[in-house]
Write the structure tokens for this entry.
Amino acid sequence: MTSEQLAWKIRRHGIEMTHLSGGSHIGAILSVADIIAVLYANILIFDNKNPKWQGRDRFILSKGHAGAAIYAALAENGFFDVEELKTHYANGSRLSGHVSHHLPGIDFSTGSLGHGLSVGAGMAFAMKQNGNTDNRVFVVMGDGECNEGSVWEAAEFANHFRLNNLVAVVDHNKMQSLDYCDKTLEVSPMAKRWEAFGWNVIEIDGHDHSALKEALSAENADKPTVVIANTVKGKGISFMEMDILWHYRFPHDGWEYNCAVNELHKVKPDGVEDIYTPDGCPETTPEPEAGDHTMCLTFKPDYRMGGLE
Amino acid sequence: MRDSAVRKLIELARNDKDISLVTGDLGFGVLKPYWEAVPNQFINTGIAEQNMTAAAAGMALEGKKVFTYSIGNFPTLRCLEQIRNDCAYHNANVNVICVGGGFVYGSLGMSHHATEDIAILRALPDVTVFCPGDVTEAEACIKAAAETDGTTYIRLGRGGEGRALDSVDFKVGKAYKIRDAKDFDKKVALFSTGAILRDAMAACDKLEAAGIGVEQYSFPTVKPIDEKVIKACADKYDYIFTVEEHNIVGGFGSAVAEIMAEYGGKAKLVRLGINDVYCTKVGNQAYLREQYGISADKISERIQGVLGE
């Protein structure tokens, strides 16, 4: 399966899973889809028959709320049955909203932000000590996650010990839970921050698969690498793109679900089947206010001056 | 106790290259023998306990037996979520060493007093909680921690605890009898955990001099706790006294209470510890034990008061 095909499937599964479960974070699932697709289609070394194989690359989704993207990638790569994706969030399911290691192919459970990079750095450190030079550790984080101080503790550690077998990817979609990142706790300039911490920084369009392949393949002689992947929250569904509403909202029955599926069908790569709605959904028109919730809700310039009463 | 524990760790590390000691930039003059003996099994991760603990989890998942080291509340409360999510939940062989349980760092002030740690660590599933009472128990706890597949907490004193027991047939979860009750009319059971053992022993001497027999135990493991000893004493005596250099809420006395409440037996329980306050007084460990009611004199007075002497 090509990365383009896998990315489409991650998006389609993501829409279905959140639709069925009423689950959150479709915006993040869509923004990270291309990064995950390239990792699983072209970069990561793994064995779906032996998920704990010592010769695998280690992978941690530190922004665990986008777990549906990983579940979709694992199912499409034969770690478990695709049918199981429908159990996302359900009673008795293995597919919790945030990533769980009780599922084959998941190296580490996350959900609380700011843990994954440290754990990945510890793995990378121990792998060097153990003489493992064949494998790397990949950690995918959010840009909002970079608010967490522990991220920068890990950044210092990885640089200090020259963990060049560690690759972090920041899914830089510019939005977090309540608002834009830069209206919440300024994260710009993201690349310069990582450079200042001593990392090898590669900044790319996080939806450009050839750029992702090149960046994620690059090896550095002595530094950890961070790929700043500039992405669009909700990428691929026009009314979800850069609309803060879709951090938490799920595609409801009716125009939301139908329009989302139909938009994906318009860009379906050859050789891909939609197992849920093979022929798409009935033509439906989005409601007028669709996609119009993109506004700064939680920050006013006066806050900086302490001028508000 | 601290130095003996480090010596034990050196001995173990020389024979097992997977043992790693990770410090949060503490241990001046204490850890030097370790890093000189086994330099490749030591890391200083800087003043960054969240990263230290999560990285330790990552290392443990790559096969290392990791000991994190710091003082007071820094290796526990500062990075509690990393212990919970990254270490315990993943059953990672991470052993958190705290030097300075209770009032060890007396005059340094409240920030350095570990007085709620037992309660908090005990509340985490899959965390074994060790509070050795003397040098012999401390050495045994370190060894048991390295051999325990999973996360442990080891709460140490600093120095001068001495040896109450020459040797111990150590088992995780077992309490050790320090003395049998002398054949007086009045007899009670006294349990302690951690380095307050010395004051507990001196208190028992005073009680014996006052004609009160004491069956005394040290509990180097608070979780799992020795139910057998608790139940036997609950049947045998009218009173069980617990002594801990820790808040009375949620700690060792509470662990004993949980067993007694569900078991029955005839004994009443009296918990001696810090009476749910933060320390606002300045002084050394012995002074603060006296001020907060857990010195040998205060323990003995309190018990005699309860018995109506």
Observations:
- Chain A touches chain B at residues 101, 107-112, 114-115, 118-127, 129-130, 149-150, 153-154, 156-157, 160-161 (CB under 8 Å).
- Residues 3-230 of chain A form a domain with the Rossmann fold fold (CATH 3.40.50.970).
- Chain A has a mean pLDDT of 94.
- Strands of chain A lie at 58-61, 137-142, 166-172, 200-205, 225-230.
